[in-house]
């Protein structure tokens, strides 16, 4: 690493190093980010959830979208794997099924960026225990 | 560069390392490799998370899952369940003691809810051994800004306006100290970081140095620029090996990046830092003693004035600040004086780090805004008293502070309020006591410490504290008289008034404050020959109840000095002359037949 010779040098360096901690910084304020949960149970992994997850992380990063992509357990939609749940800030979560890299791009382009719904949404027909309790 | 999908933050503070934190890191690394995840998941050793009670702590990012009391053997399960299958390892989550529910994120835990982290902002967040992570968190930006865009006067004004006061105990306005040092003209000036943390139970400075060493280096360089010093010295006790090794790494990295050394940020300003080791003498936390110790002389204080700001290390103007004070500096310069002074009370701005210890459920390191009440700290953050016992007192300010009671619980904590109640802020040690603690013994404990640590230079401290200790010992043996109580009080006041340095001037505080707040307890020791808390061994005896004892002989078998006699199935008897009051019989009796009187 070259020496810091000016404030501009330091700022440039900071930009480059940002990725080292940005994941940690984002995770402190998840409600302000686009949150994507990829269902990574056995069925999900077998249908390629891992590739989709990697692809989404890379794409979001490339397009500089503040997002947290995490894996989660089986959501129960084994017929439609890989499934992902996308939560835009201030919105209810939406679940998409049969997501491959192409579909993922479409979701990012249309839903995440423009807020338009795309095909492949799985209606959520359950309530979690915690939600019930809060009501 | 491979982009990591997950970070696993493992606490690398001294406490968690002592509970196999390092083995957790290694096991995680091994299991990740076995699962071919080493390029997707990064394991990071961070500084202290503060929640030492439940250490070792492991935090999963980005979902912020907070695992507690993790063992090296848990590594395969964390990887297989959490990372591969996306399921949380329920049994490692923190259980809320009130609702008995598992809490998965730290922000939902009572311990963290009321905290604001400024001095500890990077502790438990970055890898302290990696300067890149510090820079990514705006590290050294304040130094760059000050050097290239501000005059020393402007920077000092920001610190003065922020209202920051010394976090080492005295609470002297930091900006003012800088201003005084700046105004003295000299060929060479020094800035010194006081890392000689000595209060029993306090470990905030150590944790900052272990968790965010660059913050201190950056602040010292800023301090140097503002006061006109080109050399920085960190006086740290050799008992802090981890902090020392991380500081050394940090200094090397900063030099390599040109952030310490000559011509910083393209200006003509030079600054470098060296370490000086102390042998762990309490008195060396006092700035004049500290300076003498650094000069290779005996660690003894000298009369002030002259203050170190005028004539300090090698007779040159020296600005001494505490670790936590320094940790606040870079943020204040980046965020502004107004932001900092909006936190806290009228005369005490910002936050304070406390080391919460003693009979409290959540032992650990916390940072709260000034003005938070003791009740919030002990009951909300600390989770109340251990084993459901009753709160009795809290000791603040270490051997220089005092014991506060129930009636002080709702007072907002700041420098002035604590002094008004007969205690002080000190460096931020906070020891919680319950109904089983005898306050006379507590005072004796602190006096024992002060007698040991007195440098012996001035008579009031050297002789006076020893006499105080002897009188307290007399009381705990039940031999005290009313006259002793008067003498204790008078002598305490004389020591306070006539001692040379801060050590002696404050050492009687634990005696005076316990006498003030627990007069009944002192009276009971003197008049009734009783210790209400049942702690003073000379004033209590173990007695077997004839009715409850069934003659199982267990007590006589566990007694190490054969003080218990009695036949099988007959009530037993303790010989008070032989009994050494170890309490072994009391703990073993299954029938509650043995009581303390």
From TrEMBL, chain A:
<protein>
    <submittedName>
        <fullName>(2Fe-2S) ferredoxin domain-containing protein</fullName>
    </submittedName>
</protein>
<dbReference type="InterPro" id="IPR036249">
    <property type="entry name" value="Thioredoxin-like_sf"/>
</dbReference>
Automatic annotation (TrEMBL), chain B:
<dbReference type="Pfam" id="PF10589">
    <property type="entry name" value="NADH_4Fe-4S"/>
</dbReference>
<dbReference type="InterPro" id="IPR037207">
    <property type="entry name" value="Nuop51_4Fe4S-bd_sf"/>
</dbReference>
<keyword id="KW-0411">Iron-sulfur</keyword>
<dbReference type="InterPro" id="IPR017900">
    <property type="entry name" value="4Fe4S_Fe_S_CS"/>
</dbReference>
<dbReference type="InterPro" id="IPR011538">
    <property type="entry name" value="Nuo51_FMN-bd"/>
</dbReference>
<dbReference type="Pfam" id="PF10531">
    <property type="entry name" value="SLBB"/>
</dbReference>
<feature type="domain" description="4Fe-4S ferredoxin-type">
    <location>
        <begin position="570"/>
        <end position="597"/>
    </location>
</feature>
<dbReference type="Pfam" id="PF01512">
    <property type="entry name" value="Complex1_51K"/>
</dbReference>
<keyword id="KW-0004">4Fe-4S</keyword>
<keyword id="KW-0408">Iron</keyword>
<dbReference type="Pfam" id="PF13237">
    <property type="entry name" value="Fer4_10"/>
</dbReference>
<dbReference type="InterPro" id="IPR017896">
    <property type="entry name" value="4Fe4S_Fe-S-bd"/>
</dbReference>
<dbReference type="InterPro" id="IPR019575">
    <property type="entry name" value="Nuop51_4Fe4S-bd"/>
</dbReference>
<dbReference type="Pfam" id="PF01257">
    <property type="entry name" value="2Fe-2S_thioredx"/>
</dbReference>
<comment type="similarity">
    <text>Belongs to the complex I 51 kDa subunit family.</text>
</comment>
<keyword id="KW-0479">Metal-binding</keyword>
<dbReference type="InterPro" id="IPR036249">
    <property type="entry name" value="Thioredoxin-like_sf"/>
</dbReference>
<protein>
    <submittedName>
        <fullName>NADH-quinone oxidoreductase subunit NuoF</fullName>
    </submittedName>
</protein>
<dbReference type="InterPro" id="IPR019554">
    <property type="entry name" value="Soluble_ligand-bd"/>
</dbReference>
<dbReference type="InterPro" id="IPR037225">
    <property type="entry name" value="Nuo51_FMN-bd_sf"/>
</dbReference>
<dbReference type="InterPro" id="IPR001949">
    <property type="entry name" value="NADH-UbQ_OxRdtase_51kDa_CS"/>
</dbReference>
<feature type="domain" description="4Fe-4S ferredoxin-type">
    <location>
        <begin position="540"/>
        <end position="569"/>
    </location>
</feature>
């Amino acid at each position: 690493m070259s020496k810091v010779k000016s404030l501009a040098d330091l700022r440039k360096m900071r930009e480059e190093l940002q990725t080292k901690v940005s994941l940690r910084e984002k995770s402190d304020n998840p409600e302000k980010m686009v949150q994507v949960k990829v269902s990574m149970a056995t069925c999900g992994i077998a249908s390629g959830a891992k590739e989709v997850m990697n692809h989404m992380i890379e794409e979001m990063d490339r397009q500089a979208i503040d997002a947290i992509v995490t894996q989660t357990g089986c959501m129960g939609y084994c017929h439609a794997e890989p499934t992902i749940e996308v939560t835009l800030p201030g919105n209810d979560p939406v679940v998409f099924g049969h997501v491959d890299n192409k579909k993922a791009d479409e979701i990012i382009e249309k839903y995440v960026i423009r807020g338009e719904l795309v095909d492949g949404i799985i209606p959520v027909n359950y309530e979690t225990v915690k939600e019930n309790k809060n009501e | 560069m491979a982009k990591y999908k997950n970070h696993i933050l493992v606490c690398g503070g001294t406490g968690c390392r002592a509970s196999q934190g390092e083995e957790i890191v290694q096991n995680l690394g091994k299991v990740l490799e076995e699962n071919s995840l080493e390029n997707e998941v990064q394991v990071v050793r961070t500084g202290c998370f503060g929640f030492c009670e439940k250490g070792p702590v492991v935090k999963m990012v980005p979902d912020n899952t907070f695992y507690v009391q993790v063992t090296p053997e848990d590594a395969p399960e964390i990887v297989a369940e959490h990372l591969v299958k996306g399921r949380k390892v329920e049994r490692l989550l923190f259980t809320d003691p009130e609702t008995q529910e598992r809490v998965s994120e730290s922000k939902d835990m009572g311990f963290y809810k009321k905290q604001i982290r400024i001095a500890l902002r990077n502790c438990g967040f970055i890898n302290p051994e990696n300067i890149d992570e510090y820079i990514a968190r705006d590290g050294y930006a304040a130094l760059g800004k000050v050097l290239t865009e501000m005059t020393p006067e402007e920077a000092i004004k920001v610190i003065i306006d922020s209202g920051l006061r010394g976090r080492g105990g005295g609470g002297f306005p930091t900006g003012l100290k800088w201003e005084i040092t700046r105004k003295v003209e000299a060929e060479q000036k020094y800035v010194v970081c006081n890392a000689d943390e000595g209060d029993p139970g306090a470990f905030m400075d150590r944790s900052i140095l272990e968790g965010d060493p660059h913050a201190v280096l950056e602040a010292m360089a800023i301090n140097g620029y503002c006061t006109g010093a080109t050399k920085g010295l960190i006086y740290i006790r050799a008992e802090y090996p981890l902090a020392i090794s991380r500081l050394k790494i940090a200094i090397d990295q900063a030099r390599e990046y040109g952030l310490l050394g000559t011509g910083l940020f393209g200006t003509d300003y030079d600054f470098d830092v060296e370490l000086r080791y102390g042998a762990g003498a309490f008195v060396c936390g006092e700035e004049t003693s500290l300076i003498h110790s650094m000069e290779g002389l005996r660690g003894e204080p000298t009369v002030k004035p002259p203050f170190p700001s005028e004539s300090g290390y090698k007779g040159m103007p020296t600005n001494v600040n505490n670790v936590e004070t320094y940790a606040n500096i870079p943020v204040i310069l980046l965020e502004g004086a107004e932001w900092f002074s909006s936190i806290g009370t009228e005369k005490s701005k910002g936050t304070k780090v406390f080391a919460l210890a003693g009979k409290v459920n959540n032992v650990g390191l916390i940072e709260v805004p000034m003005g938070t009440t003791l009740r919030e700290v002990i009951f909300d953050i600390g989770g109340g008293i251990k084993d459901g016992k009753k709160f009795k007192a809290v000791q603040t300010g270490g051997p220089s502070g005092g014991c506060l009671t129930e009636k002080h619980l709702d007072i907002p904590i700041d420098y002035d309020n604590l002094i008004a109640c007969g205690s002080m802020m000190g460096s931020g040690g906070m020891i919680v006591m319950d109904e089983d603690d005898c306050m006379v013994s507590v005072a004796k404990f602190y006096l024992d410490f002060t007698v040991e640590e007195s440098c012996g230079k001035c008579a009031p401290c050297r002789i006076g504290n020893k006499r105080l200790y002897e009188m307290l010992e007399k009381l705990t043996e039940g031999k005290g008289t009313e006259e002793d109580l008067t003498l204790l009080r008078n002598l305490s006041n004389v020591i306070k008034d006539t001692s040379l340095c801060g050590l002696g001037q404050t050492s009687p505080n634990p005696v005076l404050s316990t006498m003030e707040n627990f007069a009944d307890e002192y009276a009971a020791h003197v008049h009734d020959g009783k210790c209400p808390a049942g702690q003073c061994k000379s004033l209590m005896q173990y007695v077997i109840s004839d009715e409850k004892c069934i003659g199982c002989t267990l007590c006589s078998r566990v007694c190490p000095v054969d003080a218990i006699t009695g036949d099988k199935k007959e009530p037993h008897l303790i010989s008070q002359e032989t009994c050494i009051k170890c309490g072994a019989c009391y703990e073993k009796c299954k029938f509650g037949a043995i009581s303390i009187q």
